Amino acid sequence: MNEEVRFILDEAEESMQNALVHLEKEFHKIRAGKASPAMLEGVRVDYYGTMSPLDQISNINTPDPRQIIVQPWEKSMLAPIEKAIMAANLGFNPQNNGEVLRIIVPPLTEERRKDLVKKVKAEVENAKVTVRNMRRSALDSGKKLEKEGVPEDEIKQLEKEIQQLTDKYIEKVDKLFELKEKDIMTV
After folding, report:
1. Are 117 and 184 in contact, with CB atoms under 8 Å apart?
2. Of 52, 76, 104, which residue is a domain's last?
3. H or E stretch including 96?
4. CATH code for the domain of 168
5. In this predicted model, what pLDDT tens digit does every residue of 76-109 receive, in sequence order?
6. Are residues 91 and 137 in the same domain?
7. Last residue of one domain, picked from the residues 61, 84, 104
8. What's the domain count of the chain?
9. Closest CA to 40 of 5, 86, 4, 76
């Protein structure tokens, strides 16, 4: 197979793999009943005039599946961190005891579980769209190569392999969805 054709195939696979990795990261942010430091990943705190990620100004632990402990490196940051968590609208109500912030993760209701599954489905659809866009981009690159004189049978082989890659990654996305849905719906 031509070097340029191989490059297109490798690039498409790498992009599809990145879409899968991104989906997994997004899944970590969606809680399935168990407390996890990733739940606070998007929280930014005003740290002396600079908006900083929470994990850069504090230690975040989960001593048990129902609570998250946020221990700032400076006690003076307790109030700003508490405000930032409330402002992030994650449905948490941190309790400040003067040393640490204790966040009790409430058990999920059936309705909330269904909402989370909808959110997961939206992320899954975004990942599938990304994979399909990678397929289209790779096919377009293949057509350009054909115009540049690469033999038609190599391009046909490339198109076949790109479709196989696409099917493989769509299947992986579906498997991730099934696992996450099961995780969320398990009480």
Report:
1. yes
2. 104
3. strand 95-96
4. 1.10.132.20
5. 888 899 888 888 877 788 898 888 999 888 777 8
6. no
7. 104
8. 2
9. 86
d(CA 78, CA 141): 53
Q: In what order do the strands lie in the sheet with 67-72?
A: 58-64, 67-72, 101-104, 95-96
Q: Residue 81 maps to which CATH number?
A: 3.30.1360.40
Residues 46 and 80 in one domain: yes
Tokens of 122: 């939206």
Neighbour tally for 113: CB within 10 Å: 17
For residues 73 and 100, give the distance between their C-alpha atoms in angstroms, rounded to a whole number: 10
pLDDT one-digit tens code per residue, 150-185: 888 888 999 999 999 999 999 999 999 998 888 888
The structure tokens 């975040």 sit at 60
DSSP 44-73: EEEETTEEEEGGGTEEEEEEETTEEEEEES
User: What are the φ/ψ torsions at residue 103 (nearest 5 degrees)?
Assistant: -115, 115
The domain of 43 spans: 37-104
Given a cut of 70, whether residue 1 has pLDDT beyond it is no
Query: pTM for the whole thing?
Result: 0.72
- Tabulate helix, strand, coil % of the chain (nearest 5): 65, 15, 20
CB 156 within 8 A of CB 3: no
Q: 134 and 158, same structural domain?
A: yes
